[in-house]
Batch of 2 targets.
Target 1
Amino acid sequence: MRDSRPAPGATDARDPATADTGWWREAVVYQVYVRSFADSDGDGLGDVGGLRARLPHLVDLGVDALWINPWYPSPMADGGYDVADYRDVEPAFGTLADAEELLAEAHAAGLRVLLDVVPNHSSDAHPWFREALAGSAAARARFVFRPGRGPAGAEPPNDWESAFGGPAWTRTHAADGTPGDWYLHLFAPGQPDFDWTNPEVREDFVRTLRFWFDRGVDGFRIDVAHGLVKTEGLPDADLPPGADRSHPHPAWDQDGVHEIYREWRRIADSYDPPRVFVAEAWVRSSERLADYLRPDELHTAFQFDFLRAPWRADLLRSVAEEALAAAARVGAPSTWVLSNHDVPRHVTRYARPQPEAVLDLDAYREHSSGQVPDLATGLRRARAAALLMLALPGTAYVYQGEELGLEEVEDLPDALRQDPVWVQSGFTDPGRDGCRVPLPWTGEGPSLGFSPSGAGRPWLPQPPHWAGLAVDVQRDDPASVLSLYRDALRLRREHLLGRDDVAFPPAAPGVLVLRRGDVEVTVNTTAEPVALPAGRLLLASTPLGDGGLLPADAAAWTTRG
Ligand code: GLC
């Protein structure tokens, strides 16, 4: 069970009500994709009851907080990122009362809780959008409706594309079938974008933040935080062929968005203890990302370049150094993440030949399926990458199942795929279901303990070999991935926290060395063993070889202290 460690930067971080507000600067946050975490009622879908029952796993692992993906009422056109009511809980997941119980239980266990707020768009089942389609002018003004271009307005209002593929506009039709205006959806057609120039939208999100803050929620992850404000007039993007996400676009990362977060920060700061934010913002540089982290804006933002970095020492190092420098400029911590519910799991990413530059993740999913992954190598590298991530200064996010070493499930039957990416890409991109497969809790049973015995099948099938990766199989095995994460989190607390100093001393090609205080982290991405610095070994991702050498695709923490 959890030891009585002092929490990061906090005088009494085991009691969230009184703790120092800086806890988020060095926290490790566990991401719960609730549909796939644990099912308590046997319908094959994870739920709040399942999460409550499995909180001891998170306590045992030693994380500081959890982030829960959207659990609001939703038609699930995009796994809950299509929200029909921001201030309630999806009935398939439980009730508001269950959510309040969960908050109380998590806090009692010393875990803080972050929710996921989705401000760029709602669901087409949101009452406002229904009113808009029914013709209410006030409701239409909360979304982005525009006449089409071309003869009879049959062409979309501009050339923007949905992030999931296809046009970012859908045409509306009157009850008698007459075509009308178009509405904007940067994601699925079931996710109409809000118009953030409308004060009613701003006010409603303030209500939502307060609603959950008043119930004790410790903060929010902000979904597509870089999308809310669009360039006035909605001009064409005119992207050059082959432009990737780093190309400037009138729908993304507009300067006007920062004003919204200044208001949100004032609200978060008005609570005791202050509430916190982490932004999901896919922007073109660490510099642009740091703008979201200015002292009167958001607290943290995911550093996705780290996640996109291939298993190459030079790139891992340059991405980390650049991110640390950009965040330091605004006094913010960096936020490291290797996997989440949107990207192929890193065991699998590292199991294929590594590119020369940071990955384009959409292209990866579309084009990698022909190459058989070497999962044993991927897992070795994933274990090593965890030791790198957890040693870097700042906060780190652990996506459910990465602590078990789960890989991307790439062979799901097409008929079971639920991610809208699959359909919207014209069936060329398999989408994100492969990283959302329900967790294995026990080595036996039809759903590997995901659902209670006698229940229906999990909403996505688990690979049979995950029986060997189940929580109860790994828990007492000192060589397991789970034990590695648990050990790393404990040693991080004992040796690494509270130290801002970080240096990257020169190292041999293919080797990354990171120094923090007395601890040296050596990451060997080469195919040959390398020597470790003198000192005591704290932890290694794999047993050391002859003469105490660090084997290929491995990492170790040593200390001179
Ligand atoms: C974010 C979420 C992703 C979702 C999208 C639209 O990128 O992480 O899962 O599909 O926003 O809400």
Target 2
Amino acid sequence: MSYFSSVPNIDYEGAASTNAFAFKHYNPDAVVAGKTMREHLRFAVAYWHTLTAGGADPFGAGTAVRSWDRLSGMDLAKARVEAAFELLVKLKVPYFCFHDRDIAPEGDTLRETNRNLDTIVDIIKEHMKATGVKLLWNTANMFTHPRFVHGAGTTNNADVYAYAAAQVKKGLEVGKELGAENYVFWGGREGYETLINTDMRLELDNLARLYRMAIEYADEIGFDAQFLIEPKPKEPTKHQYDFDAATTIAFLQHYGLKDRFKLNLEANHATLAGHTFEHELRVTRMHGLLGSLDANQGDTLLGWDTDEFPTDLYATTLTMYEVLQNGGIGRGGINFDAKVRRGSFEAEDLFHAHIAGMDAYAKGLKVAARLIEDRVFEDTIARRYASFKEGIGLDIVSGKATLASLEQYAMQNNPIRNASGRQEQLKAIFNQYLLSE
Ligand code: XUL
Ligand code: CO
């Protein structure tokens, strides 16, 4: 049976196509900067937004109309798997990602919950084999159930901590079973509401302990996924511990975890932290910790995580610029952690949304590759910092200079001359590349 019978297979038709069910820029086999688009972009569908969620918001019920809605419990979970793989194949998306609770319902006990999970994992495994679709990452949902009201790895309640650890253990086993390339930790409720009831030191120590236990267990069972932490500054807690890339990197450094973890960066989380996505990518890549991307976009007029599908070409180009400069995304990918708007409730909107996002990233990739090939920004940047290549600047970067030698230089160097940063000119050139590709 088909869950999306009105939707055909999505093929590349080129920029001039008027077919809504076709890619205008994503051509999986096209080679850009030495690799196919498929290899560069490694797209993934987020199970929770596209298969599980129904469009509810804090003010209203779900609006999504889905052909699997009439089912419930394990029957619903099984139907969603079939729908997921039909969508993945039609969209030519090679990967997917899920939380444990997205794919199977909780039972009355942890044992029963794990049994439900095992049943669905077996079915998913068959579909993966039949279609060649792979698991980019899985994770544990340790934020929805009321037991996590005070956190999971950072809870004040040791019983809840133990439950969370059990969930992570199972998650690692599931990841291994399905050959996941990565395993993600997003601290949904790893943060605090007020310091007057919080032992921050203990909470952070315990979070690091959970991460260490996860590494040990993954090694023990031979699960060789890359571990990723996904920063987010707020929501659901007022202050999340993995606030942004810089904070998360400092955490990893402090607890000696930097060698085993990389970061999964999300565009809308960057916005909420007061950064651009490219800022978060640059900080992370400077440290060699760029792991994977959650692609979406936020809205600066709104202070919460709107998780819109990414369509801003400036942002996708600058993102792909950082990815290319990083030498690629490695074992990570571009996961559409994005949801259709509540008003886009028809099943075919799921396709329009992914096509829009995939095309925006494909276009971003093409433009970024040309900008790099032509050294548009690199040459300007090299000229801008040329003063550090010789004379007093070379003394500074080679460590030869002292305050006294710099004072001596400054005393006789009069007047100082600066040069324009040429921002507007560079933006005009950027526009030229965007429009001409
Ligand atoms: C929440 C979010 C999560 C993580 C996985 O803002 O981004 O869906 O990506 O837990
Ligand atoms: Co995310």
